[in-house]
Amino acid sequence: MRRLAGFLVTTLVLAGLLAAQRSEVPKVVVSSAVANSIGAIQPRVSPDGQTIAVSYQGAIWTLPRAGGVMTRLTHDAGFDIEPTWSPDGEHIAYVNSPRFGTGDLRIVTKTGQPVNVPKRIESLGTIAFQKIEWLPGDRILGVLRVEGQTGGLGWVNWKTGETKTLAPSPQWGRYRSEEH
């Protein structure tokens, strides 16, 4: 009986923690001087040149170009990296990565409201050379996979899932074996 009671209490506590994690988290502000001293990375300037989006402490933040207060936009588990602005400056796409590399494409408004992406779009790598870039319209460029189908370097319309491959994904093992 004690085991059952312990199990029920543990289950209720975990369910409460999960519910709290998914609830609206208030925005957190940080001085841009503090962020500069401890490592905001991957800065991207908004189309109007007035706001900078960065990855900082595993989340996407914005701050005024002239300095001031940073505003946290994302609260996902894992690392939110590689912010890129929509051409109209109203949205920011980013990669939510469990290990700071590959991960799911996510989008928020410039005020931090999550935007539904109807199909699963994965970035297959962002470190050093595989960045994502928002093209005119609803297209995002990168080394992407949509619903498990690898497209290589190309773009995807994040609203419809339509893709266009520009270059296939490299076959790293094949190239290595040909060299030897």
What report would you give on this structure?
It is a single chain. The chain has 180 residues and is of the alpha+beta class. 20% of the residues lie in helices and 41% in strands. The protein contains 3 helices and 14 strands. It has helices at 2-22, 32-38, 172-179; strands at 29-31, 41-45, 51-56, 59-64, 69-72, 79-85, 91-97, 103-109, 114-115, 121-123, 133-134, 139-146, 149-157, 163-167. The strands form 2 sheets. Strands 6, 7, 8, 9, 10, 11, 12, 13 and 14 form a 9-stranded antiparallel β-sheet that branches. Strands 1-5-4-3-2 form a 5-stranded antiparallel β-sheet. The longest helix has 21 residues, at 2-22. Mean pLDDT is 78; it is low at 11-26 and 173-180.
